Amino acid sequence: MDFLTGITGAQLFNLFMLPIQFIIIFLTFYYFVLSIFGLYRKQEIKVLEPEKSFAIVVAAHNEETVIGPLLENLLLLEYPKKLFDIFVVADNCTDKTALIARNAGAIVHRRFNTEKRGKGYALEWMFQRLFKMERQYDAIAIFDADNLVKENFLFEMNSKLCQGHKIVQCYLDSKNPFDTWVTNTFSIAFWVTNRLLQLARYNTGRLSNLLGGTGMCISTDVLKEFGWGATSLTEDLEFSMKALSHGIKTTWAHDAVVYDEKPLTFMQSWYQRKRWAQGQVDVAGRYFFPLIIKGIRERKIMYFDAAIHLFQPALVMIATFFMLTNFIGVLQNSYTPIFTLVMPWTGWQILSTIQYIYPVAALALDRLPWRAYLGLILYPIFIYSWIPIVFLGFINRKDKQWSHTKHTRSICIEDVVKQKKVSTN
């Protein structure tokens, strides 16, 4: 420790701030470069002949308000009826979810377990039942009870599976983007992710996409070989990383669309995002370093990219600390500002520019309705609210209690399609 002798507090602070700035600069540049790959659509060759069979699984906990329209929608999917069945897991339900689902034509399995609560446990229980059935399916498609699905969904999944892909994530759209300012800004965040992260990763041809909780399709042989085992608060992210740790990439289907219900109020979105933050910190703690090590050993960038994604909560906390130092004059003058040496802009200017350019680009590229742009006014509030949420997620990372998001928007797929046409015109 002799090398520390004679070093002042200001010099130590400077040494501490240098790696922080390099991390922020590197990851900002990394995501900027990645997003460029989302500016275009690659021409895809699609398999049009229906071949694969599907078990459609809907996980539902007290969803009597919204499950009816979804099942009606699924029964009308443009795919041979003999090649898919619809299963509903009525998980710890105390309402009429099971009855409504059964009357709508779904195969209902009721599960009661007050200790192992949550979607991940419900799916694992249902998968084990599917594996024991006389009829076996090529793949399992997973939806939430509040969803609505574009009619070509199974054709798109069939095409991906026939091309050799094992895990597929679809485009996550919103079924109620204009209900409130929260649903609007929440929808913008999803549209940005769809275009500038998910499609971008797919276009590189080298990276793995990430499962998004719904609109997921997983080959049955993968589930049988490696098991589900994803029972954290973010089971989708957990399974993405588990599969990738075995070398199995997730691919992207931009033309397969699921319309997801977004929370109506800010507090509903707060609790939902807090659960996501807790889950991501939890998954990062288990998979971050193994993915880095695997990336070094196999020299494949997809493992590093996945690790970078898991690092996002830490990045938010690091960037927040860095920004706070810019408000304290004494601290601001106690370190070498790498931002001003590398770029003519400050960190605040970079983040402010990105937070508007990215959403505008995503909305324009996917030709979303003009009303969507109104959400950009309050979009910064939604984005910066992630800061306290991430800190709370880190603090409560060991809390595995599932928080259910109540769904109330009972609309049919025709209404969603009509709403989009009206908004576009």
TrEMBL record:
It comes from the Bacteria. One of its GO terms (molecular function) is glycosyltransferase activity. The chain crosses the membrane at residues 20-40, 301-325, 345-365, 372-395. InterPro entries: Nucleotide-diphossugar_trans (IPR029044). Keywords: Glycosyltransferase, Membrane, Transferase, Transmembrane, Transmembrane helix. Pfam families: Glyco_tranf_2_3. SUPFAM superfamilies: Nucleotide-diphospho-sugar transferases. The keyword Glycosyltransferase applies. CDD domains: EpsO_like. Belongs to the glycosyltransferase 2 family. This is Glycosyltransferase.
